Every structure is written in C-alpha cells, then in structure tokens.
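Please check this record.
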Amino acid sequence: MNHIEVDQRTGQAACAWHAMSGGHGTLEGKTQTSTSAGRTMSLTMCEWKKVFYEKMEVAKPADSWELVMDPNLKPSELAPGWKQYLEQHASGRFHCSWCWHTWQSANVVILFHFYLDREQKTGSVRMRVFKQLCYECGTARLDDSSMLEENIESLVDNLISSLRQQCYEEDGGQYRIHVASRPDRGPHRREFCEACQEGIVHWKPSEKLLEEESGYSDGSRHKAQAGLGYNFLSLRWCILWGCLCLLLAYLQFSFRNPAFL
C-alpha cells in the first residue's frame, strides 16, 4: 500500500477521533480553553495532511511523502541534503487560550524543510507555523493559528511548486500570492510576532502588490513621457511641411500676380 495512503488514512482517523471527542470535555475554565486550542491545532494539522497527501498523489504518484509538524525548525539551519521554503504571507486566525480574544493576521510565517531520497523514492516535509502573542491580555503564551481549507490549499500549492523546483529540478509553475480575505486592523505588530522575534523579515502581500503596481505605473509614466517627444521626420510631419510649403508658394505667387486673384 502506498505510504501516502497509509498516512492519509491515519490522519483521517485522527481527525475523526478529535471531532468525536470534542464535545465530551470535563475540564472547565482556562484548562478547557487550552484543551480547545490544542484540539483546533490538531484539526488544522489534519487538514494540512489531507490536502498535502491528495495533491502529492497527483503531482508525484510514484514517490511517498510524509508531512510532520516540527516546532523546533530554524530558518536556514538545514541538515545535509535538505531544502527550505519559507511562506511569508499566509493568512490565519488566532485564538488566545487565556482571554479568548481572536484576531486575523495576513502575516503568518510558515517554514518548510524537506528532503527527497531518490533511491528509496521517499520524501519528508517538516513544517513550522510561527505563532503570535495576544496583544489584549499581554500573556507570554504563544498561540497557534487556524486556517481555512481554501487557504491551506493555496499554501500547499506553493510548497509543491518549491518541491518540484528544488527536489526534482522541474518548473514548479507560478506561485500563488494569497491575500487575506479580511484586512489587518492596523500595522503588523512585530513585538507580538514569533517570526519577527527570531529575525525573519517578512512583508505583507498588499504592500508588495502596491510596490509592483507603483513600479508599473512609474514605467508606464516614463513611457508616456517618452511618447510626448515629437519626431519631426515622421511621415505625418513631412506631409504637413509639404502642405505649408505649397501654401507659402501659392501666397507668394498670388501677391506677385494680382490678376490671378
């Protein structure tokens, strides 16, 4: 049986177990909230595995890949043969496990390390979703993010594009820039971002798109300004000059011969 199918069935069984056990908690207060946050993260990881295995089965059916969450991943700290892809502009929703505050962010950073064993035709992907601090209650507890399945699909597409480029030396295709469906409320707060605290510089897609649009507008403006220059040797100008010369010759001849008028 394909390794992907085994992991996919295991992930689906885990998702089903979490869904059935979700309404039978006996703890109360903050402990119950913490359990709920952990259950949400587990369900989100199940969605990641489900989407990843389905898409890899189509992209590389001959190879077996696994997807594992690793909170200890560090940017650019790679074992020999491993590759890296950094998603800098994912959209996610955070839920504080202490004060129940929720917030949307378009600056979720996701780090992927992956390795392909060509002889065994097996690959491994380890991922880390960087967390954020709640700015309402000020607690030092870092909270996980949850994402919609449609958002996960676009992020997995980007991951597979990077896999194809770096592991298979193929053309991975166009990367998808995912813009959050809901805009951020104010600027990104770096002091509450785990990725920023670890020195990862990431940008908002809206800012990048504005830069690209601005560059395009500047280029168009320069072209338009260049187009304002007149070429007096063009056919249109030559015809105009010829008509003016004929008109001047006619007027000159008319003044010299009044009878002609």
